[in-house]
Amino acid sequence: MTDNITALESAVNKLTKEGKILESIEQYYADDCVFIETDGSSRQSKAEQATFLAGFFESLTSFDGATLHGEAVGDNFSASEWTFNMTAGDAEKIEWNEVLVRTWDNGKITSEKYYQK
């Protein structure tokens, strides 16, 4: 099972690096996936997350890149460390350093929790 999750994690991360985050959500996340923010707030579905992110991306001038620093995979589990660079609508530069922890079931992500460093 770990081999399959390794391949799936790599596919999700490839789309993320390309800035195709909404596409990765559509393809690799379960409909009832739960997304948990660093502050404990959450979104309870793939659709809710896609709407949230679409609004966020619309507020940006540009998505300037995503750097994957490392990833780890276990049984039904994966984690990846990222730096995201963006430019806000007011031209302010944004840099997020984040760890994403994912739980997998039947080839789909069922939860994703964010830890900001």
What does the model show?
The protein has 117 residues and is α+β, with helices and mostly antiparallel strands. It has a single domain (2-116), classed as Nuclear Transport Factor 2, Chain: A (Roll). It is 32% helix and 50% strand. It is built from 3 helices and 6 strands. The protein has helices spanning 2-17, 21-28, 46-58; strands spanning 29-36, 42-43, 60-74, 77-88, 93-105, 108-116. The protein has a 6-stranded mixed β-sheet. A hairpin with a 2-residue loop joins strand 3 and strand 4 (77-88). Helix 1 runs antiparallel to helix 2. The longest helix has 16 residues, at 2-17. It is globular and about 40 Å long.
Class by SSE composition: alpha+beta
CATH fold name: Nuclear Transport Factor 2, Chain: A
Number of domains: 1
Number of helices: 3
* Helical fraction: 25-40%
Gap from first CA to last CA: 30 Å
The low-confidence parts are none
The CATH class assignment is Alpha Beta
In the CATH classification, which architecture applies? Roll
The main sheet comes to: 6 strands, mixed
The rounded Rg comes to 14 Å
What can be said about this structure in brief?
With 117 residues, the protein is of the alpha+beta class. It is built from 3 helices and 6 strands, in the order H-H-E-E-H-E-E-E-E. The model has no long low-confidence stretch (mean pLDDT 95).
